[in-house]
Amino acid sequence: MKKNILILSLVLIFLPFLSNAQGKYNKQSKEMFNQIESAKIAFFTSEIGFTTEEAAPFWALYNKYSDEIRNAHKDRDDEMKKLVKMTKVKTSDLELKMQIQELVNAEKRESIIKEVYIPEFYKILPTEKVAKIFTTENMFRMKMIDMWRHQNHKGKMNND
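-> structure tokens emitted (160 positions)
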């Protein structure tokens, strides 16, 4: 019941913003990002069940981890965009190989970040809660995607 209320709250908070999710980045996008982060904190806290002793050190570490992962994702996405552009124009095999390697290196950076942070999480949390970090991230991401799809589908239905 508690999870259903949390999910419903997330839906109600984000419905007005999800319709704008495909627009250009602006002040509203930043506000939406901040609200998603707040909802993520509430969701993680509910799902993982931090003690008062665990919460503060976890969030300090997780925020650093999350920033690094977000930057690595952006770098990977940038490398993929470069590769896509290169495949649409005449590009030498050597240039394509170099760009493929850049993409692979960007993907490796994400794994390296996780390898660095996981032992740090173990210093703060028991193993089960460390595992829940990753499962909860995935659940939260899937809930956000489902909400976006629902809102996007609803918008298309209203425009028809």
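Residues 52-88 form the longest helix (37 residues).
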